[in-house]
UniProtKB/TrEMBL annotation:
It comes from Acetonema longum DSM 6540. This is NADH-quinone oxidoreductase subunit K. Pfam families: Oxidored_q2. It comes from the Bacteria. The chain crosses the membrane at residues 6-23, 30-50, 62-86. It catalyses: a quinone + NADH + 5 H(+)(in) = a quinol + NAD(+) + 4 H(+)(out).
Amino acid sequence: MIGLEHYLVVSACLFSLGLYGLFTKRNAVAVLMCIELMLNAVNLNFVAFSRFITPGGFTGQIFAIFNIAVAAAEVAVGLALIFAIYRDRATTNVDELDWMKW
């Protein structure tokens, strides 16, 4: 039988993969995808806690839907910024985006 701890382990693995990718990837699109992976790990936690802690409620599912909406908006804004930067600089490498540094 699959319990809460199984969901938490899968969620921790997804979050760790996203965090690793966030720190190691240099492409801005890959960084956005890693952030999405971390947000999906959080969604899995919301739904798992809602299922096992308060089985009759839908609080976790509502938070997950809200989180998906925020993630979609974040990706839309992030991709728009990346397209604008690529049009200006012809690169999406985050190491080369240093015009905001002193």
